[in-house]
Amino acid sequence: MERKLASVVVIDDLQPIPGADLIAVATVKGWKLVVKKEEFRIGDLAVYCEIDAFLPEKPEFEFLRKSSFRKMGEQNGFRLKTMKLRGQISQGLLLPVTVLNGYAYTLGEDVSARLGIVKYEPPVPASLAGMAKGSFPSFIPKTDEERIQNLSAEYDAYKKESFYVTEKLDGSSATFYYRDGDFGVCSRNLDLLETGNNTFWKIARQLELPAKMASLGKNMALQGELIGEGIQGNPYGIKGQTVRFFNAFDIDAYAYLTLPALREMTGQLGLELVPVLDTAFTLPDTVDQLLLAAEGASALSPAGKHVEREGLVVRSADKRISFKVISNKFLLNEK
Ligand code: ATP
Ligand code: MN
Ligand code: MN
């Protein structure tokens, strides 16, 4: 699932911002962003660039230099981040379709490559980057989650469903698998070689995952978030590292286990789940209300300290529906 960092959209709404004459707030799907007042009308087509888009140094994007210039490795560009302007949250950028120079686009089309836009990726320490044994195994799904802002068309239908909610931890995605006698360790995108300095493998050994997973007597993958020292600034103040699990995947059946089955398995193996916040959750009226509900203290906040959680992962019992709701408070604090 690749993110559409820049795509052709319809402007769903435009509203004034109290006390601001020159700017307005636009709604695009579940996103809100600040635009110049006279630049767009409701119903206009435009190119919407999501947060984390990294725009190239081209004349048409120079206006972003002051707010957004960033280096990504050797590459110069402009990184879009969550901002607050005149008290209004603003996420992403709207460009007039003329930026496509007459290209015959279709609604919804991903135009990031055409504009030279890529995803901003912060530098990854060597202990987490690792060395590839191979690409991510094709017999296990990756751990990506879609953002609720991109599912606004489905939101009303989702209101009929009951969900379980876990805290989204800010670490690094880890997948461990046992298949036909082979044990493997993967980061978000790679099957990893066991090397001396690799944190994923170190923790797999520390948690005795090779033996524990073999004891299941089944081809299985366990997926979780690696957190602790050296990872994302260790917001939870953990000593060393650990993994909190959020998925068990039955490889032969090509199916996720339910939350109760995952809970039972991790309990039996002496492993920990991500914090489970609710098991019978129904969606509030609007995406904006859900975004507010995502804000709050992490269940892993150290005693006496408020650590703003990254957000929530919301899933139906069968995992047919699954998405993330990132806290805007968390995003506003992002470096
Ligand atoms: P994006 O592609 O949207 O820029 P990303 O690829 O960095 O973001 P994340 O925003 O980190 O992905 O969201 C998906 C990740 O969330 C999963 O890969 C998983 O590692 C992590 N995660 C943390 N906590 C949970 C949880 N409770 N349930 C599911 N996934 C979780
Ligand atoms: Mn992703
Ligand atoms: Mn993450």
From TrEMBL:
Record key words, sorted: Ligase
EC number(s) recorded for this UniProt protein: 6.5.1.3
MF annotations from Gene Ontology: RNA ligase (ATP) activity
Enzyme class: ligase
InterPro entries, A to Z: RNA_ligase_dom_REL/Rnl2 (IPR021122), RNA_ligase_DRB0094 (IPR012646)
Keyword hit for ATP-binding: no
Domain RNA ligase: 162-326
Protein name, entry field: RNA ligase (ATP)
Organism (species): Chitinophaga oryzae
